[in-house]
Design a protein that fits this description.
1 helix, 47% strand, globular, 125 residues
């Protein structure tokens, strides 16, 4: 397990979500106040409303720069390619909608990209 993977593991509270006007935000990123948990066994769990788990899998991509993560839904062909950065206790993920190219930066230049910001949390389900 890489150093960056270790930094991702734990609980994160959604503090902000951003997308182009009219774009529906993905459940995979959670809504403000939701808890997102990344586990050692590559589970990406979004706790909607604090008690409804939406379970995904993730894989950190050591072969892509900047730091990259792929998030898989129930259908393994349905992958959200993303990049991420950790700054202290904050995690930022810029994800593409399934079927679209991975973002190359943390802007919303592409209509199919969404930015999710999280703060590390002590709450673990």
């Amino acid at each position: 397990m890489s150093h960056m993977t270790n930094e991702l593991i734990g609980a994160w509270e959604v503090i902000d979500t951003t997308a182009h006007e009219g774009i529906v935000l993905m459940v995979i990123g959670g809504s403000i106040g939701d808890l997102v948990q990344l586990t050692e066994n590559n589970r990406f769990i979004v706790w909607l409303d604090g008690h409804i788990p939406h379970k995904y899998k993730y894989r950190v991509r050591d072969d892509v720069a900047p730091e990259a993560i792929d998030i898989y839904s129930v259908n393994p062909r349905n992958v959200n390619q993303a990049i991420y950065t950790i700054d202290g206790e904050e995690l930022t993920i810029c994800a593409a909608s399934a079927g679209h190219d991975r973002p190359t930066d943390f802007s919303l230049m592409n209509n199919f990209h969404m930015i999710h910001r999280y703060r590390r949390s002590d709450a673990i389900k």
